[in-house]
Amino acid sequence: MRRYLAIALDCYLCLLAAGLLTRPYVHAAETGRAVVLTALPALALSFVNQVLLTAAVRASAGKLIMGVRVIGLPDARRPGLGQLIRRWLYGLARLPLQPWYRLRPARPGARRPGVPRPAYGQPGIAQPGVPQPEGSRPGSMADDDVAGLRQVRRGDLRTYLRSVAAHASV
Fold first, then answer.
1. End-to-end alpha-carbon separation of the chain, Å?
2. In whole angstroms, how far apart are CA 72 and each of 18, 22, 76, 79, 128?
3. Contacts of 80 (CB under 8 A, 6+ apart)
4. Which phi and psi angles does 149 have, rounded to 5°?
5. Cross-strand bridge partners of residue 151
6. 0.85 exceeded by the pTM?
7. For the chain, which residues score pLDDT lower than 70?
8. Helix (H) or strand (E) holding 149
9. For position 111, what pLDDT does the model report?
10. Using CA of residue 41, residue 14, residue 61, residue 73, what is the dihedral sign?
11. Interatomic CA distance for residues 87 and 81, integer angstroms
């Protein structure tokens, strides 16, 4: 639940900031230009929030508020800039298609659209030693990310990193 609230916070904060930045200019412009004037800063702020901030502190603004961190698989490393850009672009491309994924009839035996294929291992097999996201079942494919990243609670990540450090020193 925290992950979804973090995503909602990210969207809200991005649109609020873009709206506040463009408010003086939107009232003077016609509708088409007003949409562009609002969309461009929203995209730029989204990039800064989802890519640059996550690269710096392992979380976007909404994830920081909700106590969620983004880690790279399989070893809980800091996510790379390329992974974060790929994830951001995938999110931008997938977001407008959400109604299509929900309204499209499911075929028997077909893989559910919108659920990315696992980036490692075999389908349905959890990566050993990597902290599981909140509310997930071990081996759940729904938690895999197209860029090989995963969202975990900050406390779980700390516990995992302490555990790895303790095992490395033995």
1. 37
2. 29, 35, 5, 5, 14
3. 55, 72
4. -115, 160
5. 70
6. no
7. 98, 101-144
8. strand 149-153
9. 55
10. negative
11. 10
